[in-house]
Q: What sequence folds into this?
C-alpha cells in the first residue's frame, strides 16, 4: 500500500504545516475509519500533546454553545489558537444528524485563529472516544493551542467523551426543570469545574446551592470543585471560568505534560478495555464461563470474584483490532 | 341557606348580564351616533332591505348570545369592535409598498393613493432589515424587496406630496424604529406637529421575530424588550395618535403554527408586552388603546373567520380582567391583515388572484380594520405596477360589487361559525395556558418552547402536502403538464439609478457635521447604558442630526446586544 | 432510501445548508435540512445572513461534500460570487445546489456558474434528496481523485 503511505505522508506534512484543508480532510478520513486516516494519525501522533483539551458539557438549554463562544473570545484575547470540536448525536434510525452548534459562533468564522469542526456521534457504541481522541491528536499536531470539546448533554456518550478531556466543565442553568436533576449523576462525577450559567436569573443562587450540596455528598475531594457563575450572553464570569480551568489543570497535572498525556491514554485504554471486555463476555459461550455464571446463581462465588476470574481470561483471549 | 344563595346569584346575574333588550338598545344608540352620513337604506338585487345587523331576534334564539357574541362594539366584541364596522367605515386599504430608491417608492405610493388606497405602508430593503446602509451592500441585493431608506432625506423623498398629517402610515421597521424616527424628523421639517401623525410601528413585536426566526430582529432579546417599552413610552407622550405596538401573528402563522396556536401565541405576546409596560409604571388604559394586531389571513376560509372572532373575545376578557383595563377602548382587538403569501403558488400563478380574493373575504368577514392584498406574482417577485393594481382592484370589487360592507358580521349566527369560534377559543386558551406555565411568552421563547411547537406544526403541514392529503391546485392536483411558463416580470431596480442613490448617500455622509453625528452617537450610547433614559428618544434626535440607519443599529447592537437566533427548531 | 457513495465505506455525506445575502425566511431551509438528515446525511445548518467568506471557511473546516443554498429574495444573484470564492480556496470539488425563488430567466447564469441543481417551489422531497445524494457522491469521487493526484 505504498501509494497510501505516500498519500498519508503528504497529508501529514501539510497538516503539520498548518494547512486547514489537510486537517479538515484528515479528520474526515479518521472519522470514517479509513485506513488512510489511520496512517495519517499514526504519522502525526508523535507531534501531538501540546494542546490542552477542555470538555464542555451539560443539559440542553444551559447555554453551552453561547458560553463556548464567549470562552473562544476570551482565549483569543489571550492570543491562544483555539479549536472547537462539537459532537452531536446521530439518529440511530437514519444515521443522519443536524449539527447546529456553529450557529453561535458567528463572530469567529472569519478569525483564522479559530477552527471549528462539527462531528456526529455516528452510533459508534463504545468506540466514540477513541475516534474523537484521534481527531484531537490531528488538531493538536496541526498547532492548535486549546481544544474545546463540546458534547450535547443528552446521553451516556457524554461521560465517555469526557474521558478524552484533561479538564471537564459541566454547564448548568437555573430553571431547566427539576434544577440539578437535569444534570445526571454521571456527569457530575467527572466535573472538574461546575458552571451556573444565566447567573443573572433570580433562581441562580438556588442552583448554585444545590450543586454545592450535591458535591458534598460525593467524595471528599469534590469540595475542591469550583462552582463558577457566568452570564454567557454578556461574557460576565468567563474570565473567572478560564482561571478556574487553569487552576484545576495545574492542580491535576502540576504542569507535567507527560502526566497529563499518560493519564489521558490510561483513561481511554480503560474505556476501551471495558468496551472490548463487554463484547467478549456477551458472546462468550465457553462451558467454563457458563459454569462460572451458574456458580454465581448458586451462591458459590460473588459477582466480583467471578469477574476477576474472567478478566484474567480476557487478557489472553481479547484480540487487538 | 341554599335558597338565599340562589337568590343572591340570580340577582348578581341580573346586574352583570344585561337583558337582550338593553344591549340591543345600546347598540342601536351607538350605531345611530356613529353612522353619520352613511345612514342610508340598502336594498339588494331582489329588492329586500339589507339591515346592518342580524341577531337571534331574527331567528328567535337568544341563548348565550349576549355573553358569547354580543352586539358589535360591545364586550366581548366577538361580532366586531365597532358598532358600525364596515358599514360605517370601510376597512383601510393599506398596501405594502417597497422597492428601489425613495423616488421609486414615492411614485408607486402616489399611484396607490390615486387608485383608492387610503393609507400607506413602507417596506424597507432587506439590507435595511439586516441593519446595514446601502454603501456596504453588493449592488444586486439593493432595493429588490423593499426601498432603500437610510436617512431623513431618503424618507423625505419617499413621502413627497404625501399628506402625512392626514393619512395613516405604517412603518414596517423593527427595533430601534429608525424609519419612524426619520418620519418624525420629516414631519418636523414640514412644520407638522407630531400629534397629527397617525399609523403603526408595524414590526414592533420582537417576540414574533424571535419565534419565527424571522429576518426582522436586530438587537438581542433583552435589548429589543428595552427599546420597545421606551418606544411605547415615547409615543404615549409625544406622538399620541400613533400605534407604537403592533402585536404580530403573521410570522408565527407563516412559520407553520396552526391558526389556533397563532392566536394563543400572539395574545400571549400581547400580554407580555403589556405587562412589561405595566412594570414600567404605565397604566393599562394609557397603552392598550394603542395596541394593534397584525395577522396573516390564509385560505382556510371559515377557520380564519372563527379565528378572528375568537381572538377578539379572548382579548377583551384579558384586557379587562387580567390586565385591569377599564376603558372599553383598551378591550378592543384592532387588527390589520395581510392575505397569506404562503398559500400562493408559482404554478399557474394567475390562480393566485382567486386565492387572494377568497383570503380577503375571510378577512373581511373576520372583521379586520385594515388590509393588504398580495399580487398574483408574489411567489416570484415584488409586485409590478400592473399586478399591484389588480390586488387593489380585488378589494374594490369585494366592497363595491359584492357589497361585503353592508352587513356587520354576516356569518354570525351560523351554527358552524359560532361553534367553530368556541372551539378555536378553547384551543387558543390551551396554548396560552402552556405559555403561562412556562412563565410567559418571553421566557417561553428564550428556552425555545414556542419555536419547537411551531417547528412541529410546520413539519406536520409539510407532510400533509408531500403526501397529497393537503391538496393544492396546480401543485399536487390539477397540474398542467403543458403549462406555459408565464414570463413573470421580475421587478429589479435600475442599477444606474441605484448606484446614483448610493453615491449621493456617500456624499451625504461626507458633508454632514461629523461633530453633530459623534455627539448624537455618544448620547445614544449613554442612553442605552442608562437605566432611565429613553433610547428611542435618542434615536429620534440622532436621526435628526444626520446619523444613518446602519450607524444607529450598529451602535445599539454593541450596547444592547446583537440579535442572534435562539434556537434551530 | 439507498445511500449512494461509491468507493467509500458507507460514511454519511456532509452537507452544509445555509443562506447568504439578506433574506431571513428559513422555514424552507430547515425542512430541507431535516430531509437530508432523514436520508442519512450529516447536515451542518447555519442561520441566515452568512457572509460568503464565512461560508467558504466553514466549507473548508468541515470538509463538506455539498452546499445547499436557500434563496427567496434576490440573494441567488451573488451565488456566482460564492462559487468563485470556493474555487479560489481550492474547494471546487464541493457541489452546490440552490432552492427557493429563482426566476427562469436567471437560471442559466447559475448553471453556468457551476450549480448542480435548482429547486423551485413545489419541488418534492424525493427530487431534492436524490439530487443531493448524487451530488455528494460526485463530490466524494472528485475529492478522492484530487487527493491521489496531489500526492
A:
Amino acid at each position: 500500500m505504498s501509494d497510501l503511505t505516500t498519500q498519508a505522508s503528504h497529508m501529514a506534512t501539510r497538516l503539520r504545516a498548518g494547512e486547514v484543508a489537510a486537517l479538515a480532510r484528515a479528520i474526515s478520513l479518521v472519522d470514517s475509519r479509513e485506513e488512510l486516516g489511520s496512517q495519517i494519525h499514526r504519522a502525526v501522533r508523535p507531534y501531538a500533546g501540546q494542546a490542552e483539551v477542555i470538555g464542555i458539557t451539560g443539559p440542553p438549554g444551559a447555554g453551552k454553545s453561547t458560553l463556548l463562544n464567549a470562552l473562544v473570545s476570551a482565549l483569543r484575547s489571550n492570543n491562544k489558537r483555539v479549536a472547537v470540536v462539537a459532537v452531536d448525536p446521530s439518529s440511530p434510525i437514519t444515521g443522519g444528524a443536524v449539527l447546529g452548534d456553529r450557529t453561535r459562533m458567528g463572530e469567529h468564522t472569519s478569525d483564522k485563529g479559530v477552527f471549528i469542526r462539527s462531528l456526529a456521534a455516528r452510533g459508534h457504541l463504545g468506540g466514540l472516544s477513541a475516534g474523537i481522541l484521534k481527531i484531537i491528536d490531528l488538531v493538536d499536531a496541526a498547532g492548535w493551542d486549546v481544544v474545546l470539546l463540546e458534547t450535547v448533554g443528552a446521553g451516556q456518550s457524554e461521560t465517555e467523551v469526557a474521558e478524552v478531556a484533561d479538564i471537564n466543565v459541566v454547564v448548568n442553568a437555573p430553571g431547566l426543570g427539576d434544577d440539578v436533576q437535569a444534570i445526571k449523576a454521571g456527569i457530575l462525577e467527572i466535573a472538574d469545574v461546575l458552571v451556573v450559567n444565566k447567573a443573572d436569573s433570580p433562581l441562580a443562587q438556588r442552583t448554585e446551592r444545590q450543586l454545592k450540596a450535591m458535591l458534598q455528598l460525593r467524595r471528599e475531594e469534590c469540595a475542591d470543585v469550583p462552582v463558577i457563575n457566568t452570564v454567557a450572553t454578556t461574557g460576565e464570569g468567563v474570565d473567572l471560568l478560564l482561571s478556574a480551568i487553569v487552576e484545576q489543570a495545574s492542580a491535576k497535572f502540576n504542569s507535567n505534560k507527560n502526566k497529563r498525556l499518560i493519564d489521558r491514554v490510561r483513561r481511554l485504554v480503560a474505556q476501551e478495555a471495558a468496551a472490548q471486555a463487554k463484547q467478549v463476555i456477551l458472546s462468550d459461550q465457553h462451558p467454563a464461563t457458563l459454569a462460572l455464571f451458574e456458580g454465581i446463581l448458586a451462591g458459590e462465588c460473588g459477582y466480583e470474584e467471578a469477574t476477576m476470574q474472567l478478566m484474567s481470561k480476557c487478557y489472553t483471549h481479547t484480540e487487538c483490532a | 341557606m341554599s335558597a338565599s344563595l340562589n337568590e343572591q346569584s340570580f340577582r348578581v346575574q341580573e346586574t352583570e348580564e344585561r337583558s337582550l333588550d338593553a344591549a340591543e338598545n345600546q347598540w342601536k344608540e351607538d350605531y345611530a351616533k356613529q353612522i353619520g352620513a352613511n345612514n342610508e337604506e340598502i336594498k339588494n338585487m331582489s329588492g329586500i332591505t339589507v339591515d346592518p345587523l342580524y341577531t337571534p331576534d331574527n331567528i328567535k334564539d337568544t341563548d348565550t348570545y349576549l355573553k358569547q357574541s354580543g352586539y358589535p362594539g360591545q364586550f366581548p366584541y366577538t361580532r366586531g369592535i365597532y358598532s358600525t364596522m364596515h358599514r360605517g367605515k370601510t376597512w383601510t386599504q393599506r398596501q405594502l409598498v417597497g422597492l428601489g430608491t425613495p423616488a421609486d417608492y414615492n411614485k408607486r405610493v402616489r399611484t396607490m393613493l390615486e387608485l383608492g388606497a387610503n393609507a400607506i405602508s413602507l417596506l424597507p430593503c432587506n439590507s435595511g432589515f439586516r441593519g446595514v446602509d446601502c454603501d456596504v451592500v453588493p449592488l444586486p441585493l439593493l432595493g429588490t424587496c423593499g426601498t432603500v431608506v437610510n436617512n431623513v432625506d431618503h424618507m423625505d423623498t419617499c413621502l413627497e406630496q404625501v399628506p402625512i398629517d392626514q393619512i395613516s402610515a405604517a412603518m414596517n421597521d423593527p427595533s430601534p424604529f429608525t424609519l419612524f424616527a426619520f418620519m418624525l424628523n420629516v414631519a418636523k421639517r414640514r412644520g407638522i406637529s407630531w400629534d397629527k401623525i397617525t399609523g403603526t410601528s408595524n414590526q414592533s413585536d420582537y417576540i414574533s421575530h424571535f419565534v419565527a426566526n424571522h429576518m426582522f430582529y436586530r438587537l438581542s432579546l433583552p435589548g429589543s424588550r428595552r427599546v420597545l417599552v421606551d418606544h411605547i413610552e415615547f409615543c404615549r407622550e409625544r406622538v399620541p395618535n400613533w400605534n407604537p405596538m403592533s402585536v404580530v401573528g403573521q410570522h408565527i402563522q407563516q412559520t407553520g403554527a396552526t391558526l389556533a396556536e397563532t392566536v394563543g401565541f400572539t395574545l400571549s405576546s400581547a400580554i407580555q408586552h403589556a405587562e412589561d409596560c405595566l412594570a414600567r409604571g404605565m397604566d393599562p388604559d394609557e397603552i392598550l388603546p394603542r395596541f394593534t394586531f397584525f395577522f396573516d389571513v390564509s385560505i382556510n376560509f371559515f377557520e380564519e373567520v372563527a379565528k378572528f372572532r375568537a381572538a377578539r373575545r379572548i382579548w377583551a376578557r384579558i384586557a379587562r380582567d387580567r390586565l385591569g383595563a377599564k376603558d372599553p377602548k383598551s378591550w378592543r382587538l384592532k387588527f390589520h391583515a395581510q392575505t397569506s403569501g404562503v398559500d400562493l403558488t408559482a404554478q399557474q400563478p394567475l390562480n393566485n388572484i382567486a386565492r387572494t380574493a377568497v383570503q380577503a373575504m375571510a378577512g373581511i368577514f373576520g372583521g379586520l380594520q385594515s388590509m393588504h392584498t398580495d399580487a398574483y406574482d408574489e411567489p416570484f417577485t415584488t409586485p409590478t405596477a400592473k399586478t399591484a393594481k389588480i390586488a387593489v382592484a380585488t378589494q374594490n370589487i369585494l366592497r363595491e360589487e359584492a357589497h361585503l360592507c353592508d352587513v356587520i358580521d354576516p356569518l354570525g349566527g351560523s351554527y358552524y361559525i359560532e361553534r367553530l369560534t368556541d372551539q378555536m377559543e378553547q384551543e387558543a386558551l390551551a396554548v396560552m395556558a402552556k405559555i403561562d406555565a412556562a412563565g410567559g411568552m418571553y421566557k417561553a421563547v428564550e428556552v425555545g418552547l414556542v419555536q419547537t411547537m411551531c417547528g412541529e406544526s410546520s413539519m406536520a403541514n409539510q407532510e400533509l402536502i408531500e403526501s397529497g392529503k393537503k391538496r393544492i391546485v396546480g401543485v399536487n392536483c390539477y397540474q398542467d403538464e403543458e403549462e406555459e411558463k408565464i414570463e413573470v416580470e421580475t421587478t429589479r431596480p435600475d442599477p444606474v439609478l441605484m448606484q446614483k442613490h448610493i453615491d449621493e448617500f456617500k456624499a451625504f455622509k461626507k458633508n454632514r457635521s461629523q461633530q453633530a453625528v459623534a455627539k448624537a452617537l455618544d448620547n445614544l450610547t449613554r442612553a442605552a447604558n442608562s437605566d432611565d433614559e429613553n433610547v428611542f428618544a435618542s434615536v429620534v434626535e440622532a436621526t435628526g442630526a444626520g446619523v444613518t440607519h446602519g450607524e444607529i443599529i450598529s451602535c445599539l447592537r454593541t450596547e444592547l446586544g446583537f440579535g442572534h437566533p435562539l434556537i434551530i427548531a | 432510501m439507498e445511500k449512494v457513495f461509491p468507493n467509500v465505506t458507507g460514511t454519511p455525506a456532509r452537507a452544509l445548508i445555509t443562506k447568504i445575502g439578506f433574506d431571513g425566511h428559513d422555514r424552507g431551509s430547515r425542512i430541507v435540512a431535516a430531509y437530508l438528515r432523514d436520508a442519512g446525511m450529516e447536515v451542518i445548518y447555519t442561520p441566515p445572513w452568512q457572509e460568503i467568506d464565512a461560508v467558504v471557511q466553514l466549507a473548508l473546516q468541515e470538509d463538506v461534500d455539498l452546499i445547499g443554498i436557500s434563496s427567496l429574495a434576490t440573494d441567488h444573484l451573488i451565488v456566482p460570487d460564492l462559487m468563485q470564492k470556493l474555487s479560489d480556496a481550492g474547494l471546487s470539488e464541493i457541489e452546490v445546489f440552490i432552492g427557493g425563488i429563482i426566476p427562469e430567466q436567471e437560471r442559466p447564469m447559475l448553471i453556468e456558474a457551476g450549480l448542480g441543481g435548482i429547486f423551485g417551489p413545489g419541488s418534492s422531497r424525493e427530487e431534492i434528496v436524490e439530487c443531493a445524494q448524487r451530488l455528494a457522491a460526485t463530490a466524494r469521487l472528485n475529492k478522492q481523485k484530487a487527493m491521489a493526484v496531489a500526492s
In short: The two ends of chain A are 19 Å apart (CA to CA). Chain A has three domains: 1-47, 48-255, 266-317. Chain A has a mean pLDDT of 84. The CA atoms of residues 24 and 117 of chain A lie 8 Å apart.
